[in-house]
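A reminder before we start the practical. When you read a complex entry, don't treat the lines as separate problems. The point of joint prediction is that each chain is placed relative to the others, so the output describes one connected object in space. Small molecules and nucleic acid strands, if listed, are placed in the same frame. In the example below there are three entries. Take a minute to note the order of the lines before looking further.
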Amino acid sequence: MTAKAAAPRLELKGISKRFPGVVANDQVSFAVPAGTIHALLGENGAGKSTLVKIIYGVQSADEGAIVFDGNLVQIGSPKEARALGIGMVFQHFSLFEAMTVLENIALGMDDPPPRRQLEARVREVLDSYGLSLDPHRYVHTLSVGERQRIEIVRALLQEPRLLIMDEPTSVLTPQEVEELFKTLWRLANEGCSILYISHKLHEIEVLCESATILRGGKVVGSCDPRRESAKSMAEMMIGGSLKDLSDKSDCSYGEDRFTVSGLSAPGEPPFGTSLKDVSFSVRSGEIFGIAGVAGNGQNELLAVISGETQAGVTGSIRLEGRELSQLSVGARRKAGLASSPEERNGHAAVPAMSLAENAILSARSRMGLASGGVIKGGAAKDYATRVIEAFSVKATGPAAAAGSLSGGNLQKFVMGREIMQNPAVFVVSQPTWGVDAGAASFIRQAMIDLVAKGASVVVVSQDLDELLELCDRLAVINEGRLSEAMDVKGIDIEKVGLLMGGVHGSEIDGAGAGRAADPSHAPAKRPEPAL
Amino acid sequence: MMLAAPVIAVALTLVVGAVLFTLLGHDGLGAILEIFVKPLFNPYRWQDLLVKAAPLAMIATGLAIGFRANVWNIGAEGQYILGGLAGTGIALATLDMSGGWILPLMLLAGIVGGMAWAAIPAVLKTTLGVNEILSSLMLNYVAIQLLYYLMRGPWKDPMGFNFPQTAMFTADQTLPMVVPGTLIHLGVPLAVAVALTAFFVMTRTITGFQMRVVGLAPKAAAFGGFGAASTVWIALMAGGGLAGFAGILEASGPFGQMVPQFPTGYGYTAIIVAFLGRLNPLGILLAAMVLALTYVGGESAQTTIGLPSAATGVFQAMMLFFLLATDILVRYRVVSGRAAPKTARAPGKAEAEAKSGAKTGETKVVTA
Amino acid sequence: MSLDLLVAILMTIAGAATPLLIAGLGELVVEKSGVLNLGVEGMMLIGAVTGFAVATTTGFPVLGAFAAMVAAALASAIFAVLVLTLMANQVATGLALTIFGTGVSALIGAPFVGITTPTLGTIFPDWLTSTPLLRLVFGHSPLVYLGLLLTLGVWWFLNRSRAGLILRAVGESDTAAHAIGYPVLKVRYLAILFGGAMAGLAGSYYSLVLTPMWAERLTAGRGWIAIALVVFASWRPGRMLAGAYLFGLVITMELQAKAAGFNMFAPEFLAALPYIATIAVLAIISAAKRGSANAPACLGKSFRATA
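Here is the predicted structure of the whole assembly.
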């Protein structure tokens, strides 16, 4: 830490921000001294993103003041923020797929030098921080980690005095996370303050020297994460304890029910990942996990299994021995294969339609919601009502528009709609993405209950902790290739991390013993507060 | 609420139209009265209105089915011509025959002719991914040249003093009047029946559900098992079939033969009808009457106050502009009114929404 | 074939290609910003009639061309307000603009039917156009040269200038551009106005250069061909130039065949040829590369800045 300035680099005083019907930030105050890494902790919906958008000038606060290096400032736009020396790396990168790295960097600067000079400066920054990135590559050819590097370089070129990182590690492999931390420590040593937004407690314990905890838009505590236990921080974050998932150790597995073998398919245009010879099989009563960093073919795999993608697909998909790969989406559903894609709004559900109509979308044949091509309105309403009740969906009724539900409630409805059709196999992507802790635990329990009845479940998730908690076996997908399946009990986390980062088979075996066998003590793993 | 935007749009068109035409040196207020009011008080004009509204409603109903699913068939004009030509082909082949089967066969040929013309953009779209807006529109120009060719050459009436037109249709080839002694032919009740059927299909059947889902959320449609190709085909067959049907009804009804002046822009005006009717078949029946009024009133305004014939087109386009503008304002009120009560008890939802918005790109709303 | 005839044919090709090129480049810039404006035909008609009216009343065709640009840009402003500020559907609004342009141009043009106007002729001295070959270089309307310069200018703007980079970024990802702090709507407003002005200029070419008179629907669907050419060109100015001249050739074939009394095809078939060729070209280009990476990712979608 440097002692150059007595005033903190950033100080927030009573920041409040309201949206219609919601208070996103309520009298938030805290300070970040120069050269420190400060964590902003909180669950989804705690108000973290809104707060950093205010600091970066994307949104304006209704009340309160921002003091930067001892001066009261008004930050009206990201441009003004950058002029002050505030840089930001977004959770969802503001990148342009069809443009080069250099063009993207130029777009992120307010007054970029001519392209040759810019390229020289970019290479300089890359060298000095030991980052590897080709300035002339098109963004759509880059991995997620490389894309994040663009944003970091973009921020570093402005020589920031405060760098905001919004959930930077949620899409990175454990190895990429370590690389990132090295960069951040170096920046802090050079005097740059870092505001680090995350809900990953273990990372914060390692990385940060101070933390502010948000819940429901309010500051509910602050601490030194190095001296705090993950448990105590989690309790502050959640503000209560959540019920444990029922133990599923006593359940027994049946025969192989769902077998995918040699599945290959082209990527989604224009920049998707193609699937290459994907094989796995799931027994009845089993939850099978597919881990991996986003954009490695997960969406393609789900679309191929559900039947939404048919063109160019080779390989076989068998349910209880029956070949499904030539069947339509509807026929696969009839055969007992249910699915739920990552995207709720606009993919699993039609936001502008009622819940009853959304029930028709995927349950019409198995639940008899139509006959002879004519919709049975009453039956659709009944089924939607049953789903709402059984899955405690907070909605005004079956006539409520899907788009009027909160993310967690809509996900509960979507999951309920599929699970209550009693599928033999349920394939689901990101079941708890962007869902609050209570709903997440409900959804996980529902999947456990489904396999307890003898079904098979395939969970595709970027959240490794969720998979370790939920699954019996898992495999890792990287660049469209799926690894061998591994038993979750006694799994080698380091090996999983290497697989996620694209290091395959023999290379790993030669790497020696893994870091930890017990997931609950793995350093790369955070305790999941939701569980 | 459903009616608010179209009513406001028509009202604004009247007001702005009156001002605009006054500024252009015409009798603005007189023009409005002449076009939009006077025909309503003239029983003979009412017949004319119904006869003009029927093809507009029929074409618009077909187009609306496609527009719901974001399939932009703007080739109705060409499909209308081909429907007329296909039916005329049957008529010319059966000139010296008689029997009650001839007219139904002509009508069927009209539907098939329109569908066949619409099948070209459908095939191009489903197999190669060719944009249907451009391909269907280009075919309008081709259809007109085909019509000219047939009128000038092969189909010219040998007894017609070298006029480029076909022989008159026989009694068995002509549409009967439903009310004797008036202009109201069978096409008028048929247009109403088509709209009612379409209303049932769109609201109560899986096919209608499919079209609506595709328009609102194409990925959800794929998830629900509705193929993109089948949607394109349904949309273009409905649009082409009904445009072709309207075409042969016009040829065998008001025209009674095929002439080079057969295309009158109904295929384009029907686009306005479809939007003014909010893509709802029942709304389209009303909207077709309004647009028919601009034709009927526009014609009489030409003779009575010397308003240029082009004024009709300007009024029609203004109506669509105002509809598109007010539609959004009305939609906004609906959306904000619905969202407000429930966010009250969901703290932090805005943040979650902002995230999902960034991810799904749902801020990029394509409105139809 | 004599040199005179060959030069005449080549000049006809350039003449037929130029309005497609100018309107197409305008639309290309609009689409690169993420907006699909299907009103090109309507704006061209407004340009054609305005140019004609101003040229006949003032006697200065250059003034007519300027007025055409202003009038069509004003018409495109209606479109811009609807699709950008009011977030109306771009397809429907573009169609409305074409219907509007058709009606308004017929209304304005009614008193001018049957009159001829001074044309926008060559700009070089007579001695430079005294031989066929010199004529091929110097004998065109100034708009032909302008079209070529515009191709170069649009290429430079999109690929070399910072403003062009920002415009492409806005068309590629409006949300990302907004997040960085670029004024998405302002960029799109300017692009639409530019596209309108170019469509107007292209329209005036029909009434001031090609046929020095006004008739309803004078542009006969050429605006739609210009839009199709943007797809054909895969949003690249250089290919736009090639596409426009290719269509200039197709249109010239029709004219020449008629003039030569060429009877193998019905004249109606020749008249339909440019439209059939458009469909064929779209089919070939779509078959060759599905999911073209060069298409602006946000094309046709409304953008709303999140609060």
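Discuss with your neighbour: The CA atoms of residues 126 and 143 of chain B lie 22 Å apart. What might explain this?
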